[in-house]
Amino acid sequence: MTTSTTANRETMGFQTEVKQLLQLMIHSLYSNREIFLRELVSNASDACDKLRFEALHNEALYEDDSDLAIRVSFDKDARTLTIADNGIGMNRDEVIANLGTIAKSGTREFFGKLSGDQQKDANLIGQFGVGFYSAFIVADKVSVLTRRAGEQADQGVRWESDGGGEFAIEMVEKAARGTEITLHLREGQDDLLAGYKLREIVKKYSNHIVQPILMTKEEWKDGGYVTIDEDETVNQATALWAKPKSEITDEQYQEFYKHVGHDYDDPLAWSHARVEGKAEYTQLLYIPKHAPFDLWDRNARHGIKLYVRRVFIMDDAEQLMPLYLRFVRGVVDSADLPLNVSREILQESKDIEAIRKGCTGKVLGLLADMAEKEPEKYATFWKEFGQVLKEGAGEDFANKDKIAGLLRFASTKADSNEETVSLKDYIARMKDGQDKIYYVTAETFNAAKHSPHLEVFRKKGIEVLLLSERVDEWMLGYLTEFEGKPLASVAKGDLDLGALADAAEKQEQEKQADEFKPLTEKIKNSLGDKVREVRVTHRLTDSPACLVADEHDPSGNLARLLKAAGQKVPVSQPILEINPSHPVVTRLKGEEQRFDDWAAVLFDQALLAEGGQLDDPATFVKRINQLMLDMGS
Ligand code: ADP
Ligand code: MG
Questions:
Q1: 481 alpha carbon to ligand 1 midpoint, in Å?
Q2: Cβ of 191: how many Cβ atoms within 10 Å?
């Protein structure tokens, strides 16, 4: 939105989310203010990578200057710091889009959800990605001068803002391509106007950057630093992943992650390996500690950078990682691919297929290892990314068993709603004679935990997995067995406990089925098409009735999910099962006058108990009131 224009200078308002982010950033990240330099250097490095990539197809973009570098300088008198690069640069539209808005989808929701306390939490803001706006932690005015590679010198753009609600933009001359960011420091930030201090920060946070980070040389003389008219490379300026593991410290791995992962926090784990064989490549893959806020956006940016023999090729190479591992960040450096590889070529490349297979295996291996050796760490991982990993059970047939081994569930044997039980744990404590892995699905954890279908399992001490995430029903369509044990819903088909039911019980059940036949027939007549069948059950101990789906029908929960998602669901009639030992049911045997009301209430409460919604709640309430009055009289 343009608010004012003079000659070629325009003032524009930041997108609302940017204003919010600026405020949060300045306050929550102040105690770690040095990271602004890491972010600006990281952007400068990305800009050099992008130029290198575009120049693969268009050499002229180098404008006779292909030595890509980043320069950090300061001016004590003007109280400014400048970070300059000769990377890709930006044109006017790009400046407005990149430095005036946050394009990532889901930002609005993310900010909306942050409570007052959370807004002060650096880690939460960090999750969002800190980026360019972190300059305002130390500066009260930021000036960006940039020109896109390949444009004329008069196509330079100056962007300026004090971090309030607006920025100004104008077209200017800029001879050299690339970007120069000048920070006018806030009061009290003057300690940053010193070469040794800046060197220290660069070494600490940006040592791994591949391009040289240049500063003017300084020497200690007569109790002070004097500048020498000579450039000096402050960082190591080599590809971290190309070095042997033994020469890389944990801190170096962590700092590099912040650059490639665009994250503020340390990673949870990483795997670094050189692979030789069908495809030759090096991979350095990271598992983040936090899910990004756009994790559920399956189109969101993918986190793998592709290099070919240390030359940056592209960001977000989605072919390198399956969708269900979209949270993995890092670098793959191929020795085989041609430098001019395009996204189209990637889709068909056999090398890429081999790399993807290898990387997938590495990540699953890393997770399996973590699950075994560092269960607490794995629990953190699961909390953040478990729901995404579940997608893998259906997406990655070849790794189905490995993925199944990584899954965690809530269960009747655990005392919280956290997903902590593995299928292996479950099988290890199966009862004698038990041959299935039982589960129940519902829309919420509480609905699952209190499902009437669990009653007989509780009585017999049989563990049941409690599934209440949206992705669970979908996953169960693919995950049908684990280590030879079928997964079985407790709310579907005939309850066949197999060897778990004893002979005396079975006899008793057959007797009851006969005895209640007239009643079940009468209820079926009364309910008509609402139910496929009414039968006596042995699933229940406390509840009078429950609904069961036929073996091949979708469960009630799945039908409701599909309906909520706007999908057409074939009408499948549930089976109403009644508990012959429940007083309400035995009483019904003798009921004449209000039989239809009783039958309807029995059906409706069974539907409610499994988390369903009544077609006609008002009539249900009326019936309940009437029956209560009857009892009183
Ligand atoms: P991110 O790096 O995660 O994309 P940033 O906030 O750090 O987010 O940067 C926003 C965008 O601004 C970058 O994606 C890039 O397009 C642009 N940008 C920032 N700094 C530069 C630079 N030095 N040269 C070119 N483009 C830049
Ligand atoms: Mg950035």
A1: 47
A2: 8
